[in-house]
Amino acid sequence: MAGDIDLTRDVFHAIRGRDEMDQSSVDYRDFPLAKKEVKTIGILTGELGLSEEMGEAYGQAVEQLQKAGYELKEVEMPSLEYTVPSYYTIATAEASANLARFNGVRYGERPIFAENPDELVRKSRDAGFGDEVKLRILLGTYVLRSGFQDRFYHKAQQIRTEIRREFRELFESVDTLMLPVFPTQAFPHGEQGLDAFQQKIADRFTTAANLTGLPGLSVPGPVLNTLPTAVQFMAPAFHEHLLFECAEILKESFPIQSPGDYPAEYRLERG
């Protein structure tokens, strides 16, 4: 019976349909797919804050797209400077509000014993949440305090609206946008690399997709100094097919490689 079913087609239609129980889902048929193929790709210019290796990887990706015959258009995205602060303000506020239900009663880790409801909640959250989650809850509670919402949370929402506007205008002149994924390569084993604050700042390229609700796809780039690199593409809403087209080009240019000392069973190149 499985042979009579087009699993790829059926799964694709299933996951993109509207869920009546999910208010955040939308009907994709309200967004006609006007752009059927990629012709023009936006390329970020200016100071991107990339390491030497990541800058070289981004340049090599640009060269491969040029060789493939795409029209490349240099663009500037001033709003990228504000994606990280607005994202973490909104995300922590949502974490504070949404995780409030995790109190050990219906949701969350339930301790074996608690003297009273306050101790139940305290023990439940202490055992069930890691350090990063606790930090986000504390920050979110702070920005949602009376008198601070307008100063932080509402301002971040206004910035998000401006970022979405900038991307909407950008996609009137280009079909997709190519960005870096992370400003540095992976940290060597046993080294800390960037500290926690620097790692959050480094999310400036990836948080744009979260804030705008637009599709994004990370694609492997060249291997430099034995470490992999990557770039990412973003497209208008419900235009994931444009991302796949761009990914296919770079897939041929930069085949996935594994470090030379990887055991054979872990190699990505195996068939």
From TrEMBL:
Single annotated GO MF: transferase activity
EC nos: 6.3.5.6, 6.3.5.7
Residue stretches making up the Amidase domain: 1-243
Keyword line: Ligase, Transferase
Top EC class, one word: ligase
Keyword Lipid biosynthesis found: no
InterPro entries: Amidase (IPR000120), Amidase_dom (IPR023631), AS_sf (IPR036928)
Pfam hit, one: Amidase
Entry protein name: Aspartyl-tRNA(Asn) amidotransferase subunit A, Glutamyl-tRNA(Gln) amidotransferase subunit A
Top-level taxon of origin: Bacteria
Keyword Ligase carried by entry: yes
